[in-house]
Write a structure and sequence with these properties.
The chain is built from 1 helix and 28 strands. The protein is mostly beta strands. A hairpin with a 5-residue loop joins strand 20 and strand 21. The two termini are 30 Å apart.
């Protein structure tokens, strides 16, 4: 009896160990130009309050409702149409408006009336949504467009030696700034010293436990705990279970406790509980796999699906919750 119990427990442990060690062959769905996309380079992704997906491309704004894609491009003589086709960043306020960085300007789109308005503010990457409103970089000043009042408030001014690419709001209301010069924290308008010098940061994400995940383009993925402890995940050519690349562009959390990581060299999925990576690459013989290795952006929708923007393969998407193994 003891032997059978031991064998039963061992088989259970072996199953879960195998589940973590061997990559799962997810089925990836695709949206490309043949499916109606205006262009295959995806710069940003957003889901509106009606559940529709929006894709910022180099050639127009695309809306996908699950059945068909509608494309928004400039219409000559129509001042309410989109002002240009190349969209650098996209975000929404969850209350009927999208905001985009287009040709260096901040543009608002009313999703009900389908009207575009160029606001009197310059805008460049980053453009982020926080619990207070929309935050963006305007000529080395960080502004907040408040949700409740639609008024604009200055968050901080950037010194000439700080260059940022991403803004993330912490649970306590402070702001994280990351970019080519490192990591900074903003509290009551004051910018901290550089907390990660030497790191060229592309993306920031705070998880449910308050850990900050930092995507760098030169030194891999970094986890910073609320206490300031640092863990660095680097690519190891001799270890197929390491992160896919030291150039990490973007990341998102799914509903199952995994962190998805995008790079120019493929896609990684990190099990946060045991700190193991599964990596995914295009396979020519697999039409249901990832279709392009260079990942530009990641987004988790309210249904738990992961939307993957690529550099030259359009959109890949899957729902890990509905694919059991």
């Amino acid at each position: 009896m003891k032997f059978l119990l031991y064998l039963h427990i061992s088989l259970i442990l072996l199953f879960y160990r195998a589940h973590d060690v061997f990559p799962q062959d997810f089925i990836f769905e695709h949206l490309e130009t043949k499916d109606g996309l205006s262009q295959v380079t995806i710069n940003d992704i957003y889901q509106d309050e009606l559940g529709r997906m929006w894709f910022a491309t180099r050639d127009g704004l695309n809306r996908y409702d699950g059945n068909e894609i509608k494309i928004f491009k400039p219409i000559p003589g129509d001042s309410t149409s989109i002002p240009a086709t190349k969209i650098s960043a996209l975000v929404g306020n969850g209350n009927g408006s999208l905001y985009m960085a287009i040709s260096g300007n901040l543009v608002r789109f009313d999703i009900k009336n389908e009207n575009f308005i160029t606001l009197p503010y310059k805008a460049s990457v980053p453009l982020s949504r926080t619990k207070e409103g929309i935050v963006w970089n305007c000529e080395r000043k960080i502004y907040l467009l408040e949700n409740q009042t639609d008024s604009v408030r200055l968050i901080c001014e950037l010194p000439s030696n700080i260059y940022i690419r991403k803004i993330c709001q912490a649970k306590n209301g402070d702001y994280w700034l990351g970019g080519g010069t490192g990591l900074y924290k903003v509290n009551s308008g004051k910018i901290s010293e550089n907390l990660l010098p030497g790191y060229h940061i592309r993306h920031l994400l705070e998880d449910h436990d308050g850990n900050l995940w930092i995507c760098s383009e030169n030194l891999g993925l970094v986890k910073r705990t609320p206490e300031g402890e640092i863990t660095v995940f680097r690519h190891d050519k001799g270890n197929p279970g390491s992160i896919v690349s030291d150039f990490v562009r973007t990341a998102c959390l799914d509903n199952l406790g995994y962190l998805w990581i995008g790079s120019p060299d493929g896609l990684s999925r990190l099990n946060l509980s045991c700190q193991t990576f599964h990596n995914y690459f295009p396979q020519p013989e697999n039409s249901s796999g990832l279709n392009f290795k260079s990942i530009t952006c990641l987004y988790t929708d309210r249904q738990g699906s992961i939307w993957i923007g690529t550099y030259f393969g359009g959109i890949n998407y899957l729902n890990p919750e509905f694919q059991s193994f």
